[in-house]
Amino acid sequence: MRRNDTLLDLFLELQILDRVPRSGYVLRGVHDPESVTEHSWHVLFLVWALGTRIEGIDLSRAVEIALVHDLSELRIGDLPQVASHYFPEGSKKLAELATMHDLLAPLPERALDLYREYQQGTTPEARLVKACDKLQLIVKVSVYESWGTGALSEFWENPNNFIDGGFTEVRELFEALRRRKAKRTDRPLDDHRR
Amino acid sequence: MRRNDTLLDLFLELQILDRVPRSGYVLRGVHDPESVTEHSWHVLFLVWALGTRIEGIDLSRAVEIALVHDLSELRIGDLPQVASHYFPEGSKKLAELATMHDLLAPLPERALDLYREYQQGTTPEARLVKACDKLQLIVKVSVYESWGTGALSEFWENPNNFIDGGFTEVRELFEALRRRKAKRTDRPLDDHRR
Amino acid sequence: MRRNDTLLDLFLELQILDRVPRSGYVLRGVHDPESVTEHSWHVLFLVWALGTRIEGIDLSRAVEIALVHDLSELRIGDLPQVASHYFPEGSKKLAELATMHDLLAPLPERALDLYREYQQGTTPEARLVKACDKLQLIVKVSVYESWGTGALSEFWENPNNFIDGGFTEVRELFEALRRRKAKRTDRPLDDHRR
Amino acid sequence: MRRNDTLLDLFLELQILDRVPRSGYVLRGVHDPESVTEHSWHVLFLVWALGTRIEGIDLSRAVEIALVHDLSELRIGDLPQVASHYFPEGSKKLAELATMHDLLAPLPERALDLYREYQQGTTPEARLVKACDKLQLIVKVSVYESWGTGALSEFWENPNNFIDGGFTEVRELFEALRRRKAKRTDRPLDDHRR
Amino acid sequence: MRRNDTLLDLFLELQILDRVPRSGYVLRGVHDPESVTEHSWHVLFLVWALGTRIEGIDLSRAVEIALVHDLSELRIGDLPQVASHYFPEGSKKLAELATMHDLLAPLPERALDLYREYQQGTTPEARLVKACDKLQLIVKVSVYESWGTGALSEFWENPNNFIDGGFTEVRELFEALRRRKAKRTDRPLDDHRR
Amino acid sequence: MRRNDTLLDLFLELQILDRVPRSGYVLRGVHDPESVTEHSWHVLFLVWALGTRIEGIDLSRAVEIALVHDLSELRIGDLPQVASHYFPEGSKKLAELATMHDLLAPLPERALDLYREYQQGTTPEARLVKACDKLQLIVKVSVYESWGTGALSEFWENPNNFIDGGFTEVRELFEALRRRKAKRTDRPLDDHRR
Q1: Angle at C68 between CA C65 and CA C70, to 5 degrees
Q2: What span, in angstroms and rounded, lies between the C-alpha atoms of E68 and E45?
Q3: Less crowded by CB within 10 Å, the N or C end of chain B?
Q4: CA F163 to CA F174: how far, in whole Å?
Q5: Quick one: closest CA in A to E34, which residue?
Q6: Residue B4's pLDDT is what?
Q7: What's the whole-number mean pLDDT along residues F178-190?
């Protein structure tokens, strides 16, 4: 299971991404937590819904970057955030790129380029995907908290989870989520819709 | 919970799609089956990976159709296939469109148009999404069978699950999957990778 | 899988009802939620325990109505409450009856009559089953809330969930549950037994 | 949590029966196995559907016996079959009856009498419930095997699981299930419906 | 499945201990609760980490007692605490010892002696294991509560769950856990780390 | 969450190890797979049961090495085997040791020394733990296969999973497991006990 030989091998292997849970939720006792596939779909939807409202975004490419942005977790797992303190600097990025190289072998080189663009994070499209990656986290945390999960306050306190890429549209959504959170804490057993 | 008022309401509600399992698997004892979100991501990936290889496909729009194609299941659930024999003809399609109207209210009208295009299924892009919707089913069934699930043979016998939309690229993948299935039946405890 | 040919086919198919979860709980993040089978058992128990205390109830027939009241969900699923706004009026009732017709084919016609009686809801026995169907919902919601589930307040606010069929015995239990709920909200981490 | 004080206490406690899995399945790796509530519902349905076909059965009382037959597992759990070799003879029966005494305290004495009738197992109604208790086991095992579970052959080999209470109707169903099992073993990945 | 014939039979059977959940959690709605295997590992770790700090403890033997202390649950299940009121006095202890006799047959007699020492509970090593058995319960309850589980207050109120075996090191940890619990109740949605 | 300040912080954090599933099983569709805690308990039991039979083993220290051997996975997760091809050589070992340093801070230095001994793998005790780490894998795979899991053949084909550390006792168990596997493949639906 190194380089995928055919497109079909890739399609079959990708199904396994549904079994890679987002580790941050697993380690905080969230039941039946989001898979990396589910996270990826929601990030893509956010990019698509917000990208049309932002001038100068190539929406089609932004969507493609979102599509590939987390695929390496299929082979190296979703490392907990704290793990980054223990691995040598840069080793995770190298591992991700090497994984993508083998994984996406049956696709045109352009697919890997989209991933490199994401890692570098300098184009507006890559920045938007990175911002939506965080926005989706806070959206999901809000839903889990409204469902009764108790130990997610660390997510709200870590400023790295609120990187908006400089996009007003994203920042405003973060602020709206913070306002709803403040209300929810007052009325802890209430639904997020109210 | 009728018409979504804001984009944020929509984003929050969409997270729930992760809790809508694909009913065909649930009713056949597949453990921890694919959610509609996961199915949607895989269909989108197939459309993206195959669409570049097919002349005359507007890849960007095909991806957008894939993105919205199953969202109504958030509110009406994923009805089992057999249910279609019991509901009055056309009632499900009406329910799906009415749901999408309320659900996607905060998005531009174009989003609903993409869904209508999918329902009508006449453009090449809509046909490709419909073909990939079936292709993803057979890909997943193959993976579940390799993992030990036993009661999925009905899927292989139903010709409706092999609609290729007239695309050679899809038909060849169906054929490759059938060949692997034939080998697997001979060696039932074997991995799909071999 | 249309009309069941034999009793054994019916018995085998009914086992699958255990895999149909109650959608209202699934969509609100309840973990490992009640199956339709479990709901049905509890409704039947309520009917049996309360029916003896109510004059003029044919207990034996009431129990039989409870036994069949939700079986159609085996084939058409447990539609979320919101779905009823999207399907054409009456289409769900038609689908349920058509399903029961195929499902219960190996049983005497009387079984289908019991279901028709439930749908019409005019006899005291059918009214009692309908009231216990709601009572069981609020009983279960109370237990889930005491276990830490957070997003169930909608159930308490919907008057349709408190239909008591005109039976004092049921109304008093609804009131007792509301009183316990009021205490629980004050002491949110407490057990429902206290 | 000894004697239930009120009917409502009983109704609330009974919801927990959904969290008591049938231990025989748990210990053989069946995923998401039947709860005692689900087992109880199916036994009751079998008694109801078969009882009308058997002369001399008081169907209404047979159904009531089925309703209460496994409730003690709420407090003492579903002991694995092998456990009966280790507990002193008769101690489990005593524990069951003592449990039922506390559990059913808010119900009329008749409820406990139904349970005593079940334990003694001498009336035709009690014998029918005991036979259907076993029949349901083999029906469920058949479904689990068709879904891919592998380690259930012990159930087929234990003659205690085929006690038919002297009822032809039950014996014939056991025989039909054995015939389907024999076919399934030849074609191990096949659906039980074929 | 009575006396294990070989070490390998024992090793295979022990894997099943992972499927025996701790009943106290199951019956209070804890999702994906600790298995008896997991409980056993944590008790052993506590014994090891605390035992070095306590004069006069034979650490090596204390660890061995912890290793075997709950193995009988493999065959007789983890009986709910309330069950002990219903079984005849002493019958559970007899069942446990008889189970261990069959289970550990391929090991030297010394293994069974370690279990007898645990049951008698008179040596300092046995007392330490019993104290850590309770300490682990309260540690785990604390974690589950921080994750949002609501119905665990009974554990805090039962003095039997705070038996410290006379060891200051254990008593101080119980007190520290009570202090954190008091803070958590004030701020119910907070993480246990703060 | 870097260096644990107190023993209690360590004990609380260790509970989370129950939520770290063994990734090799997750990615091959095993349902409810073994946690790292469960794996660790079984390895420890194997070391204890086999260590007494091997001359020259310091059993007490071997057990302690087994106790700590996988704890770093609490913070860096259980990386899939394939991940080791993508991370720079040695980076995982460094990450593991750095994690243990922070994690075990409240314990005497000796705890970290036990882990270093495991990583180096040169003492007989460390070699025995490493051999039992593999032996437990094949024992568990055997159980999962007997339960119906289908895609585990890769484990049998990878010679790295059969490292016996030079211990005859371990090698003979590997051979016995291979013989049972060969029988199971002939009779795929059979129980591992036969």
Answers
A1: 115
A2: 13
A3: C
A4: 9
A5: A29
A6: 96
A7: 72
Cα–Cα distance between B91 and C88 in angstroms, integer? 6
How far F194 CA lies from chain A's nearest CA (Å)? 32
pLDDT per position as a tens digit, E30-63? 999 999 999 999 999 999 999 999 999 999 999 9
| Residues of C with Cβ-Cβ distance to E151 under 8 angstroms | 146-148, 190-192
The answer, for D143 touching chain C at a CB cutoff of 8 Å, is yes
Is the minimum CB–CB distance between E37 and chain F shorter than 8 Å?
yes
A192 contacts in C (CB within 8 Å)?
A: 151
Task: Tell me the HSE value of B164 on the side-chain side, using a 13 A CA sphere.
Answer: 12
Distance spanning both ends of chain D, measured CA to CA: 48
Longest CA span, chain E? 55
CA distance A173 to chain C (A): 22
Cα E110 to Cα F53: distance, rounded to the nearest angstrom: 13
* Residue E76 confidence (pLDDT) above 70: yes
Percent of chain D with pLDDT over 90: 92
Q: Which chains pack against E, by 3+ Cβ pairs within 8 A?
A: A, C, D, F
Q: At what angle do helices E36-51 and E124-146 cross, to 10 degrees?
A: 120
Question: Cβ of A147 and C150 within 8 Å?
Answer: yes
pLDDT given at position F184: 79
Going by pLDDT thresholds of 50, 70 and 90, the confidence category of residue B189 is: very low
- Per-residue pLDDT band at C2 (split at 50, 70, 90): confident
Q: Say if CB E131 and CB E66 are below 8 A apart.
A: no
10 Å Cβ neighbour count for D183? 11
Indicate contact of A with F: 3+ CB pairs under 8 A. yes
pTM above 0.80, yes or no: yes
Average pLDDT over residues B110-130: 98
pLDDT in tens, D69-114: 999 999 999 999 999 999 999 999 999 999 999 999 999 999 999 9
Contact partners for chain B, using 3 or more CB pairs closer than 8 A, are A, C, D, F
What is the identity of the amino acid at A152?
L
B1 vs A141: which has the higher pLDDT:
A141
The verdict on D32 touching B (C-beta cutoff 8 Å) is yes
**Residues of D in Cβ contact (< 8 Å) with F32:** 31
Chains C–E, number of C-beta pairs less than 8 Å apart: 39
Question: What integer is the mean pLDDT of C146-175?
Answer: 96
User: Are residues D62 and C63 in contact, defined by beta-carbon separation less than 8 angstroms?
Assistant: no
A143 contact F CB<8A: no
The per-residue pLDDT of chain A, averaged, comes to 94
- Report d(CA D193, CA C8) in Å as an integer: 10
Question: How many angstroms separate the CA atoms of B146 and B181, rounded?
Answer: 9
List of chain F residues whose C-beta atoms are within 8 Å of the C-beta of residue A98: 85-86
- Residue A87 and residue A77 in contact, taking contact as beta carbons nearer than 8 Å: no
Task: Tell me what percent of the residues of chain F surpass a pLDDT of 90.
Answer: 92
pLDDT at B2: 86
With a CB cutoff of 8 Å and minimum separation 6, the contacts of B117 are: B65, B123, B125, B126
Q: Which of A26, A31, A144, A181 to mutate to test the interface with E (most CBs of E within 10 A)?
A: A31
* Cα gap C106→C95, rounded to integer Å: 19
A59 neighbors A48 (Cβ within 8 angstroms): yes
Flag if E147 and A151 touch (Cβ within 8 Å).
Answer: yes
Does the CA dihedral F54-F57-F60-F63 come out positive or negative? negative
Q: Which 3-state string (H, E, C) describes chain E?
A: CCCCCCHHHHHHHHHHHHHCECHHHHCCCCCCCCEHHHHHHHHHHHHHHHHCCCCCCCHHHHHHHHHHCCCCHHHHCCCCHHHHHCCCCCHHHHHHHHHHHHHCCCCCHHHHHHHHHHHHCCCHHHHHHHHHHHHHHHHHHHHHHHCCCCCCHHHHHCHHHHCCCCCHHHHHHHHHHHHHHHHHHHCCCCCCCC
